Structures are given as structure tokens and as C-alpha cells.
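Researcher: Please predict.
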Amino acid sequence: MTKNEQEEKILLTFLETLGYNYQAGVSDEVEKMNAVFLEKYRDDIEQADAEIADGDYVKQADVEKLFRQRRKVF
């Protein structure tokens, strides 16, 4: 809970810089909150599926290779 409108604006700006899609004034009703969460979750899954289908992902073997190479440098 914020104490005033200016504090809320600062908090919203901070959350936006971190990539959070915070929404002020979301109703306390559990069903509405769950619906908002599920819609966002579904959108995130669909976006991830589209990225994978487009080949926009990193293979586990490539990540492990990168870590091995980094350890040699340090």
C-alpha cells in the first residue's frame, strides 16, 4: 500500500523499469485477480511457444559449453 499518489507513481515507474506489468486498482475479488493472472500467464506461454517455434531459444548444451569456456578464462 502506498501512502500517497506521488509514492504510487514512483513505485509504478520502478516496477515498469524491471519489466513488471503492475496494475493499480485491481479488485480484491479473488476471481478477478485469478482471471487477470491466468490471462497474463496464458499470454506468456503463447509468446514463449511462438519464440520457440521461430527458433528463438538457447540449447542446454550451448549454455553448458559457454560456462565451461568462461571458467577457462577466469
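Model: The longest helix spans residues 30-53.
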